[in-house]
Amino acid sequence: MPESPLTKIVDFHKELLSMQRLGLPMELGFEGPPNALGSQLEQIQRRLALRIERQGDLIQAIASDPDLPKPYRSALSTWVQCEHPTEVLDQLSAAASARRDLHGQMGIALIGPLILVVVVYFGLISLCLVVAPRLEAIYAQMWLPVSGSLRLVGMLRDAMPIWVPGVPVLAILAIVWWSLRRGRSRFGWLFGGRRYFKSLQTAAYARHVAALLDVGCSTGKALASVGPLPLQSHDLGGELATANVYLSTAEEIGQQVPPDDPTIAALPPMLRWGLVGQLDGQSRSQVLREVAAIYSDAATSQARRWRVVLPMLLSGGIGGLLVLAYGLGLMLPYVDLLYKIATQITE
């Protein structure tokens, strides 16, 4: 009895739900909370079943559904055609795992500055409640006008009902927000963050296409099934979609596309070469896997630099500024006092 076209979709959804129960990160492109994944997959399954009844072809039904998220569509297309579907699951979680790991690394890097914030917080409280009153008493006993730096400390003391409870509340809210952002942070603001995720997504995309080529798909059919390269760039979205359609149709009409064709200029250089370059006897799937390895190594190298540089910058930069501010707040009133005493003596 032939296997129903929906069987592979059902199996794919079971694997996704199993990965979710195990806590494995996935990059599916769905909106909403993670616990809504089951209902979202059921809706997609019913919708695809109707399309299969009308069109009679599973691949065509997947490609013609405009509401499927791009990462999900790419993974499902590869799953139903690939001989080794477990490879699809590894590719599906690659970018999400990297994002979660980077989120954890940055969280560890923030521990040092957080400790310094706590130390400075209690130091400022002691400065306002212990040191400042003694200095004010000394100024009063010596009939000296209060210095500007001590007046600033007094203003800080007057504002204690605001910042003493406010700082812990803000810190707790920041920690909760950071925890909730786990697996969803894009780090576009981080130096090299866009390049890091671009490398990861390009590597996963190249492996997707290579997996389809291994089972006998042509390059054009593989690109049509996988869809455009899902980079985190709103500016390149249209150009990447155009490049995908252009490469998908070029092979059907027998057109040779050179690597420097401006229509595909939005694609990363190595991926562009892997898709249309001269192979010198190698299979295109093998070349694409080598391209994927290059981009994966680039992302790993970038993450390794962050593991070293981020703690240094955060601890040295943020921590240094906090310690400097506390030191100035503590020492300037004493310096002003000594200066005024010395001025009176010389007079």
Topology, please?
Blueprint: H1 5-21, H2 37-55, H3 58-64, H4 70-81, H5 86-109, H6 111-141, H7 148-158, H8 160-180, H9 193-214, H10 219-226, H11 237-252, H12 269-276, H13 284-346
Put the structure in a nutshell.
The chain is mainly alpha-helical.
Beta strand count = 0
Please state the oligomeric state of the protein chains shown.
Answer: single chain
Query: In this structure, how is the largest beta sheet organized?
Result: none
Give the topology string: H per helix, E per strand: HHHHHHHHHHHHH
Distance between the termini: 110 Å
How much of the polypeptide forms β-strand, as a percent range? under 5%
Characterization of the model:
The protein is mainly α and 347 residues long. The chain has 2 domains: 1-73, no CATH class; 82-347, no CATH class. It contains 13 helices and no strands. This is Type II secretion system protein F.
Key attributes of the depicted protein:
mainly alpha, 347 residues, 0% strand
